[in-house]
Known about the structure:
2 copies of one chain form a homodimer. Chain A is an all-alpha fold. Chain A has 9 helices and no strands. Chain A starts with 14 loop residues before the first helix and ends in a 7-residue tail after the last helix. Chain A binds a DNA duplex through helix 3.
Amino acid sequence: MQVTELVRPYRGVSAEDRRARRREQLLEACLDAVAASGVADTTAEAICGRAGLSKRYFYESFADREAVLVAALDRLFEAVRTAINTALAGTTGRAADRIERTVSALVAAISADPRAARLYVEAPRHRALEQRRALAFDEFTQLLVERVLDVDPHDARARTAALLVVAGTTEVLGRWLAGDVPLGEAEFVQTIAGIGLALTAVGSG
Amino acid sequence: MQVTELVRPYRGVSAEDRRARRREQLLEACLDAVAASGVADTTAEAICGRAGLSKRYFYESFADREAVLVAALDRLFEAVRTAINTALAGTTGRAADRIERTVSALVAAISADPRAARLYVEAPRHRALEQRRALAFDEFTQLLVERVLDVDPHDARARTAALLVVAGTTEVLGRWLAGDVPLGEAEFVQTIAGIGLALTAVGSG
DNA sequence: GCCTTTTGATACGACACCGTTCCACTTTCG
DNA sequence: CGAAAGTGGAACGGTGTCGTATCAAAAGGC
């Protein structure tokens, strides 16, 4: 129920704005918590504590702790999606060029917010997050096959190989972000792009 | 303390054998539980119930639920290790041949026990399991670089690319086992091996 | 047959997180 | 000022799991 029959501005902000601001605070606090303690320890209480809001407002914006994590992860995917689309926008070059642009945009987008990056890396810690990430893998695989490589989108081999590269990129990216890969960003991107380029030969193989 | 001062055979088996048998039952029950309900729901109680043993014997053999999961996962890695070493034992052929043998042995070893395969796929659900799997990735990456491909083991690019393939293989293998990849085993192995072969060209850039 | 080990099952206290509810306090508005 | 909406924090009951302790019955040794 909880019909908002009588609403009133508070401290000069409308009810709607206050609500939106709280939701935003919770999402930010969620990322902070993930960055500080990992997905597993990101409880509703931890998020509320960091946000400076009580649990009441948590459940105002999210059904449960899963919901806020999924929302934060989806926001990251949206950023990656946008970055890649922008990078591919005016490309007329060869596959090698498009691959490097794509990988570069991905790495930059994920690196932009290390907090979200940890969420991305640790997504498999939680079932719902893992499923979201699996969908994102599918989406990026689709993008790779259709818009970056010049291969038949219905070739199961090509799709499988592309998925392998997408998933493998996630793993090495996580390690690179953790500082475990002794490569600069350019070299790192080139290395991944090099594997991606090999995909163009797999479908017909 | 609990010094085994006075031990006695029971139902014709020595104390030591009974203990070992119980441990084995628990490990098997652990795999059953993982296969049935996933890693997250594989609790100490669930394992004991399936094993037909009380919690007392669970804590006789394992410190906590993490320990039994790690033990089960390590056992799987050992099987994979052995399978790959066997496959590579008498090879004198080219890299392409060694790669296909390796991938084939890996796929066969994991497919051999679908219960353990789910444990392998869902390992990131738990911190300790994830770490073990990360170590296994490193080990298999090392093996790939040193014994399968002919690349410089100190080349960071080559190592990174090999890690990408190892991790990516895990993901597609999980999907293949779930029936989500429309490829027969031979085709599937060849597809992965095809990507692996591309690694021979990455190191030199 | 009596005593001890072994076993299986249950009960227990502790803890953590969940999602809700309650309450005292602040701010708005008439 | 006083009534009503908004806020923050704490308390609560519920659930699930942990790891330990307890106890009666089954099985072996003498």
